[in-house]
Design brief:
The protein is of the alpha+beta class and 222 residues long. It has two helices and seven strands. It folds into two domains: 65 residues, SH3 Domains (SH3 type barrels), CATH 2.30.30; 94 residues.
């Protein structure tokens, strides 16, 4: 409603400026336009209410004004039938048209406002959804980052364990070789001992018979 009042005030101001050189026929149904400044002169045209005329000059003594129509026809009309603004009827019709146009524009603007409000609501909803999704992705990223950090730590630990395993395996192989060496040495020692025992047995076997024989010889000599 405020827009309508402002628009009407602007229209009224524009009309006042334009009215300096323009006159309108009053609310009378028709006004005669004559060739001279009296009712005895020839009627050139009948002017209906609301007709716009260009004012050329005014004769206060005769009460007539010289005017020019939109198509260039010049003549005289009674001055009191001329007004600086359109007739009330025409102004009312014009105002009603303007009001109807403003109402239509206002309706269109209200529809656009409703659409923009709906769009704003949808955008707000989407923004909230995107914010929630972004927060979720941030949490997931942090989780993956932690997992990656743990994975790197585990990989480093696994590398250390593999190195320790290789060292233990080398130590085990060394012990195995030493054990095999000791086993071979033990077998060799036992072989030498066995051989010594056999050789000793053979020597004893050779010596004992001689000792017995000598004893018998000694006893027989007695």
């Amino acid at each position: 409603m405020k827009k309508i009042v402002i628009f009407l005030l602007i229209s009224a101001t524009s009309s006042a400026v334009y009215a300096e050189s323009t006159r309108y026929i009053t609310d009378r149904l028709e006004v005669t336009m004559r060739s001279g400044e009296s009712n005895q002169h020839k009627i050139l045209r009948m002017l209906s209410s609301g007709t716009a005329l260009e004012l050329i000059q005014t004769n206060k003594e005769s009460g007539y004004s010289q005017v020019r129509t939109a198509n260039g026809l010049e003549g005289w009309v009674i001055t009191r039938y001329l007004e600086r603004q359109r007739s009330a009827r025409d102004r009312l019709a014009s105002t009603e048209k303007q009001l109807a146009r403003i109402k239509a524009e206002n309706k269109v603007l209200n529809n656009k406002l409703a659409q923009l409000t709906q769009l704003s609501s949808e955008l707000t909803t989407k923004t909230n959804q995107l914010s929630a999704a972004n927060e979720k992705q941030s949490k997931e990223f942090d989780r993956v980052k932690n997992i990656s950090s743990n994975a790197l730590a585990l990989d480093s630990e696994n590398t250390m364990l593999r190195e320790q395993s290789r060292r233990l395996e080398r130590a085990h192989q060394a012990l195995q070789l030493e054990n095999d060496s000791l086993k071979d040495r033990s077998d060799r020692d036992w072989f030498i001992v066995g051989a010594g025992v056999v050789l000793l047995g053979m020597i004893i076997g050779l010596i004992i018979p001689k000792i017995r024989w000598r004893k018998k010889s000694d006893w027989s000599s007695l």
